[in-house]
Amino acid sequence: MQPLYEEKEAEFEVYVKRSEHVSPHLHKSMEFVYVTGGTLEIGVGQELYHMEKGDFAIVFPEMIHHYQVFGGDECEAIYILVAPSLCERFADLTRQKCPEDPVIPARKVHTEIPYAMGHLAVIYREQKAPEESDLPPESIGILSSDPLREALISAYIQIILARSIPCCHLIEKQTVDSTDLIYRTVSYISAHFTETVTLTKMARDLYVSPYTLSRVFSATFHTNFNGYLNDARLEYVCSLLRYTDQSITEACENAGFESQRTFNRVFREKFHMSPRAWKNALQEFTEI
């Protein structure tokens, strides 16, 4: 499960994988999705959009979105996350506006979009060398310092944006309804997950009953309050360990975990290894 709010430090990340349910979340990155097999449902804001093989979707930064997979056919897709700094001339546009409908059907997808998506996936795979790492292929994103590679990455991103944005009807972000409880829940946790947060306090701050809020977590996020809060904190810990010099203990405390014991337990439940083993594997990978 993805965190409610993702602090994306890497400028460029690619995931080529089987699609799965992902709970509502938001981050500062632009997100591209190209379905290569099966069907996928992408939710942006309060709307759910259907995607089939060959369809392309673009999610602007700071937009709540989620994914659902239905049916018996396995869905596979390429997911690319891009920092605003790589969007160049489109950066201001993505901050102010968003697509009314994020999905471009296959018949309208310019041939240069899947071409660029595929090449970005190849570039990313080459720089990660996943066969030499003990971590899952989708675990870490590293933007190469090679100027030529950076130029290629930027060029392919500009191609995707130039070919997709004209196909979208853009509207002002402020016109997207942000009063629904799901949006307020996501925003609240993103602002407070490093603090001492309880279901009761959160419900009081959002002016709803604890029962109503509990139903949001179980029905929409498919977990309970504590599970979702811990997951958001875990993702933040991983970000701190990847991109800062903080120790495991410091990252644990800064992410809001009240005890090392709880942190170790939930970390093992999610990653099936200890925090120390995860950090060691991360260091071995970055030294390749």
Notes on the protein architecture:
- With 288 residues, the chain is an alpha+beta fold.
- The protein has two domains: 171 residues, Jelly Rolls, CATH 2.60.120; 106 residues, Arc Repressor Mutant, subunit A (Orthogonal Bundle), CATH 1.10.10.60.
- The chain has ten helices and twelve strands.
- The strands form three sheets. It has a five-stranded mixed β-sheet, sandwiched between helices. Strands 2-9-4-7-11 form a five-stranded antiparallel β-sheet, covered by helices on one side.
- A hairpin with a 2-residue loop joins β5 and β6.
- α2 packs antiparallel against α3 and α7 packs across α8.
- The longest helix is centred in the C-terminal third of the chain and has 19 residues.
- The chain is globular and about 50 Å long.
- The N terminus is likely disordered.
| Sheet with most strands: strand arrangement | 1-3-8-5-6
Which CATH class of the largest domain?
A: Mainly Beta
Q: Residue-averaged pLDDT, rounded?
A: 83
Provide the domain count. Answer: 2
Biggest β-sheet, characterized? 5 strands, mixed
Examine the coordinates and then state which fold CATH places here, giving the name of the CATH topology of the largest domain: Jelly Rolls
Backbone shape: globular
Fraction of residues in helix: 40-55%
Oligomer: single chain
What would you say about this model in short?
With 288 residues, the chain is α+β, with helices and mostly antiparallel strands. It has helices spanning 91-96, 112-128, 147-164, 181-192, 199-205, 210-219, 225-243, 248-254, 260-271, 275-286, and strands spanning 5-6, 12-18, 22-27, 30-37, 39-44, 47-52, 56-59, 65-68, 76-82, 97-99, 103-104, 170-172.
